[in-house]
Design a protein that fits this description.
This protein is mainly α.
Length: 288
């Protein structure tokens, strides 16, 4: 995939940014729910709801060749989705989410970009490479929080990197699924990710106890998450994996913007710099 026509590429960029928006909204909703109910249970209910909805939609989408290979890529991407979420839950459990999320996302960007260049013949142009390069400081500066000792931050390094590698697997594997399989690889992705998260919840069954409004809200996060992964898959059909992953991974900017506008939080200098880098990333990739 060395070159992509301008029309499809623009559609791909729009889909990738829509995916980032939906992933960011999912983080906001799930974060609010996690203050009231267990975060792993929120994820499980959400993934189950997403699976059901995707299963209902898949038969209505043209799929001339649903091969075992395409479904296998969907399953492998689901393992990445589930493991990535599980390790982020572990990070949240030790109270270092704001420190290690940037590391997780950076790892989730770097590995698919390298895979796209090395294995899929992606050839980003000069402007796109500059945009990819500015994505890393954008994510780190936007989502980092000060005031935490280095030793405390380092304790979350391993789960953060494992989570990032898992999400990289999600992105890379899903990009390999044949488009002729329609939405069926996404159905498998959602189902497998729920199965991966299930043992985490079953280890403490009390986690699943939640009132109906919270269960409904958790299911809604799954619907938004399903929209995010669908938009990512559509973007990957129109442009290179490397640029799709970078644009999609801008999603941490959404919770930061929400905190600024809805919660009236104040930006630090590093966050201002990070947001400027994020804007530069989108503009440079779009201009390529």
């Amino acid at each position: 995939m060395s070159a992509v026509p301008a029309g499809p590429r623009t559609m791909g960029e729009g889909s990738a940014l829509a995916s980032a928006l939906c992933f960011g909204l999912t983080d906001i909703f799930a974060g609010l729910l996690a203050r009231r109910v267990d975060s792993a249970a929120v994820a499980l209910v959400g993934q189950a709801a997403g699976t059901a909805l995707m299963l209902a939609a898949a038969p209505w989408v043209f799929a001339p060749d649903v091969s075992a290979t395409a479904l296998g890529w969907g399953a492998l991407s689901g393992v990445g989705t589930g493991l990535g979420a599980a390790y982020l839950f572990r990070v949240m459990g030790i109270g270092r989410f704001s420190i290690v999320v940037p590391l997780s996302v950076v790892a989730g960007i770097a590995l698919p970009v390298l895979a796209g260049v090395a294995l899929l013949d992606d050839r980003p142009g000069a402007l796109a490479w500059v945009g990819i390069g500015t994505a890393l400081p954008a994510l780190w500066l936007t989502t980092r929080s000060g005031g935490m000792p280095d030793g405390v931050a380092m304790a979350g390094l391993r789960p953060a990197l494992v989570s990032g590698a898992a999400f990289a697997l999600q992105y890379t594997a899903l990009a390999q699924a044949d488009t002729s399989a329609g939405l069926w690889p996404l159905v498998v992705n959602r189902a497998v990710s729920a199965l991966v998260i299930l043992p985490l919840v079953l280890s403490r069954p009390a986690r699943l106890r939640m009132r109906v409004p919270f269960a409904a809200a958790s299911a809604a996060t799954g619907v938004v998450s399903m929209a995010a992964i669908t938009a990512f898959a559509l973007a990957g059909r129109e442009q290179m994996l490397s640029t799709t992953v970078v644009l999609t991974s801008m999603y941490p900017v959404v919770p930061v913007f929400w905190g600024l506008t809805a919660l009236h939080e104040r930006l630090t200098r590093s966050q201002v710099g990070g947001l400027l880098c994020a804007v530069a990333t989108v503009v440079l990739i779009s201009l390529e």
